[in-house]
Amino acid sequence: MKNIIYFLIVASSLLACKSKSHEETQAVSVNHRTIRKIDIHSHFRYSRKYLPVLHKKWNMRSVLVDVSIEDSIGIARSWQPYLTHSQAHPDLFFLCSSFIGVDIDSPNFRQRIIEQLSQEISSGAKMVKVWKNFGMVTKDSSGNYIQIDDARLQPIWDFLKGKGIAVMAHIGEPEQAWRLLDPDNPHFGYYKNNPQYHAFNIPDIPSYDSIIAARDRWIENNPDLKILCAHLGSMSHDVDMVADRLDNYPNMYVEPAARFGDLARQNPKKVGAFFAKYQDRIMFGTDFGNSNPEEAMTDAELEQEKEELDANYTLLWDYLSSTDTLEIRGQTTVGLGLPASILDKVYFQNSVNFLKLE
User: Fold this and answer.
1) How much is the pLDDT for 85?
2) Can you list the domains of the chain with their CATH numbers?
3) Which of 7, 144, 284, 285 is the S-S candidate for 255 at Cβ 3.0 to 4.6 Å?
4) Which residues, 6+ apart, have CB-to-CB distance to 343 below 8 Å?
């Protein structure tokens, strides 16, 4: 679990962290303070004195997204720290619950999960996350990988529909996971350091296409369930693939957390046109988080962490709002120059509508 949480902050800081001079031409000069923001995908497990100040500087609130992971001693989660964190700062943080398919064959599996989610929704969860455990990690008692469209999960989706609760779905991984590692790919570092998810070397893991197909069937079979496909639906290498699903599934939405490097590899005019066409279906997400308790860090380490986080928010803002030349996770590109009307939807209004915040 610690390794996963550690990756979240490391991956965010690897966004390459630096834009070129702001003296370069910007399509529209939009002050970031004028646009309200919700980061719909964050993992700030540990409190920080600087976090409220930084969020207010960016006119932003964040959704703390729980992840359920099976480890050697059971199922590890971040729900309790997130709950404590959100209760201390209800003006800044929203909550997202999660569940996992471990023991799916147990007679009380569905009831146990529904009871857990019911309690956490009552405690403030606005959304429920399912992770790449479905399709890539967790198996049933017969030794089969549990796909997200497994019929044994249907009562859970029906429960969430009845509650009006949306699902955040991180199903699958970037296609790079099924390929020989390319040092020029923005995901090279992650799979080099997390070989357990490098499917290229684990033939037992189902193919990329089969996992994406199961995800698509699940969305199609649950048209009344609002589904936010995290990381651009694990199709971030090709916005045409994402567009095809958005056209086919009206209940599907996307957010680009930790996949801006993939967008930077594509033609910026094409990516900008994608944001313009689907401006009502895209939400701002980062995957930013932290990995250590505040008391375990020095003042210098905390200051560096704050500066890097602020720089990463700045980089993403510049990518979306300006036409500056930028480097994102080793990929050189230019900003999309989105107008204020689209920035307002992507950064704020779409999340408000999706989570029923107003």
Assistant:
1) 92
2) 2-16+35-298+341-355 (3.20.20.140)
3) 285
4) 30, 35, 320, 321
